[in-house]
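Design review, sub-item: ligand-bound model
Attendees: FS, YL, KQ
YL presented the inputs for the cytidine-5'-triphosphate complex:
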Amino acid sequence: MLKGKRILLGLSGSISAYKIAHLASLLKQAGADTRVIMTKNACRFIDPIVFDTLTGNRTVLDDFDRTNESPVSHLDLPKWADVFLVAPASADIIAKAAYGIADDMLSSAIVGAFSCPLLISPAMNVHMFENAAVQENLEKLRSRGWTVVAPGCGYQACGDSGNGRLPEGEELFEWLERSCGAEKDLSGRTILVTAGATREPIDPVRFITNRSTGKMGCALARAAALRGAEVTLIAADMRVEAPNLVRTVRVSSAAEMFEAVKCRMAEADALLMAAAVADYRPAVVAREKIKKRDGEAVTLPLERTDDILLWCGERRRKTQFLCGFAMETEHLLEHAAEKLKKKRADLIVANHLRREGAGFGTDTNIVTLLTAERTEELPLLSKQEVADRILDRALLSDAWNQGGDRSHAQGEESDAGISKQK
Ligand code: CTP
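KQ shared the predicted structure:
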């Protein structure tokens, strides 16, 4: 996504500056053209030669002397850039950006930037970060259209613990992808994605679950975020990290997932239900660990969980796009077509479990997309590409284009008293 993109990085003084070396390397590997501006204090934490080497471009330093290629680098570079990321951003550079102070190369470049998207990634001690002046300055930048990357929470070099850690290179890379790598055809849309395997407790140490890893749901959440949507991921047990650019709500059982979806359904423009939700749970959860007994078979009475997709299908607004998944070992397309109708979905993504390259834990998938109008089998694709194809279908759907004119959809917008909260 960042191939051929022109990335401008601005570093101010922080112990976390070393993380930008990794980011510069990731950008080089992705085929981006990267230029770096460093303040005097940034140069005390990492030598500019690191960036000269990793980017293949001469780092622009905080001196208006003749070592810089152009006497007006502070104007040329922001004009050249597709995106400008200031990271790590100290309290000082944040204040300068907020007040338009231009007293060195980096702050002058910030004041001189007028056409490219601007991102700022604060990095400082937790108490400095929480200081009202810093927060007010960040708010000022947000109100002017800057994207403020939320810092991470945890151990800090000074020994304190809390908010203020610079995100890792991979996360900053994703922010750059989001800001200039993909077409923002989902901006203004709110998307709810479910992912992972639910766990249904038997007793305090055991549970029933399944083999879903959450990869497909995470790919969907990430792709939607990169395309500009506001994404909430309702994540059950997953074998992969939740994507950085989305709000993640952790749940465990089908009942918890149901509650989390119910609370957020009204605000969603699309519901993409990729989670593998248990259909049954133990009817009684033992308070104490169940002890084995010699020679006796044990039966575990099970009861049905709520079918979340069905519930959403019955209560959806006509303008909400609803997508479910089907994974079968036999008669996949027949079952998927039944699900499409029964659950009043716009799209069912049928997973070819038994084909090579498809199914649990793989990075690729083979799926067939079923709508009321057509059935399309996609070739072997990465889960990220499958995610994009699903999102393309949302963009083309009747739900988003004609207010949900589907033959099998029933009910008016107010059927279940659910209306979109503005
Ligand atoms: N789903 C759900 N709530 C459940 C079970 C499943 O929302 N309690 C959703 C899944 O997230 C998925 C789709 O429904 O999008 C799967 O449909 P379902 O008919 O439940 O599939 P299976 O359980 O795989 O099929 P079946 O029970 O018909 O064998």
